Amino acid sequence: MSKRSNQDVATALGVLLADSYILALKTQNYHWNVVGSDFVQLHQLFGDQYEALSGAVDEVAERIRALGFPAPASFGEFTDRASVKSTAGHPPARDMITALRDDHLTVAKSAYAVIKAAESASDDSSADLATGRVTEHEKAAWMLTALLG
């Protein structure tokens, strides 16, 4: 791979990292602050999703480093790169579910962009990582959609 193709993959991974980090933070917020008759179920689901996202963030950052680039690691860098938007406050549980579903689909799109860049660079490892992320985010979106009925 050329330095330029590595840079393209690292840039796409940086967006995936930022989206994943902001989604993890939002999911943790909802885990802590969900209320209502479905509290136990949602608290557990959001907790499981937060833990999975935390692991994914580390995996994506380490892949950026393996390509020879610094991983973005500040709120400012994440905010500048991310498609997922951070939100303040504590919406009703149904709005939390909808927001997280939509955000998982957004992160899946970021992972698809990594796949495209990685395939152009013949970077099977980054493509594989991103394919796994697509699978996880689409599954999470499906589960959240099912909760909405």
From TrEMBL:
First and last residue of the signal peptide: none
Gene3D superfamilies cross-referenced by the UniProt entry: 1.20.1260.10
Domain of life: Bacteria
Ferritin/DPS domain: residues covered: 12-148
Single GO MF annotation: oxidoreductase activity, acting on metal ions
Protein family according to the UniProt entry: Belongs to the Dps family.
Protein name: Ferritin/DPS domain-containing protein
Upper lineage: Bacteria, Pseudomonadati, Pseudomonadota, Alphaproteobacteria, Rhodospirillales
